[in-house]
Amino acid sequence: MKIMERIVLIAVIVFGSVAEALSQRDAQFTHYRRAMGYYNPAVAGLNNYLNVAAGYRLQWLGWSNAPKTLFAMADMPFKLQKRTHGLGVAVTKDTESSVYSTLSGGLQYAFLQKIGKGELRIGVQLGLISLTVDGTKIILPVDSIGGEGASDPAIPTAANDAKKFDAHLGIYYSTDKWYVGAAAKHLFRPEIDDDNLYTYFEREYNFLFGYNIQTNNPLLQLQPSVFVKTNFNTYTIDLTTCAVYGKKYSAGMSWRTNESASILLGATFGKIDGGYAYDFPLTAIRKGTSGSHELFLKYKLQLNKPKTKKSKHKSVRLL
Fold this sequence. Notes:
Number of helices: 2
Oligomer: single chain
């Protein structure tokens, strides 16, 4: 209970501020565990590997100018003064349409502390976020004021690009059997006010809980998890269950509130880990799309290889 009390206390300190009402803008991933570096900087350097990962999501296949998201990151642990830390870098390109796109990236650092049977991590990401609005591709409807081709002073007519400082903060606690995490993105609500372009990025919060269940079959493990994204005005909940066989192959299903049902597949071959997800829409939007596709690839390079004991033999001449 003392461990949970500490985690709750830290969560209250980190996420105690009240979020203002605004729809969520950050990208979403069905493979959120593989993309956790996008949501929570505390997972930087989570294992004893140099990890290089990339993910691509194509939303609502069949739509013209459908949203597309490209995510890439690299992370690794390092030791300083006999203590292990995490270091990472993350970059995301989120193309909402031919008009709007967001590019963000930053450096991640995670501080580690052993607590009980697990490890508590506190992480921060510092970087930039850039919003691009291409006003040349905006077409006003015929029945707008002035008719087709008319101008509106509130709508930019040229390509606008603006950059602002951005920061994320997160915590993550894990044991061999379960893990829990929480993070806040866009801590300082970066505001963009450039010529005809004005917007801001609301703070967004996410909460993760998962469990590793070992079955009677020593090769089979079940991994249920819950992932919540919210700004305390709107929210999205992902309920996921995956089965992992031999620590190499995985398959599962996920359900996202009022949005979609998904299948998830994954496989590990040596240093390469891959994952695919397909989302089938459950709302009326399915009339115009066959669904969403998602692909992840990760390369893992072990940093500290276990030392092998070599047998010492004397020369036969000395026997």
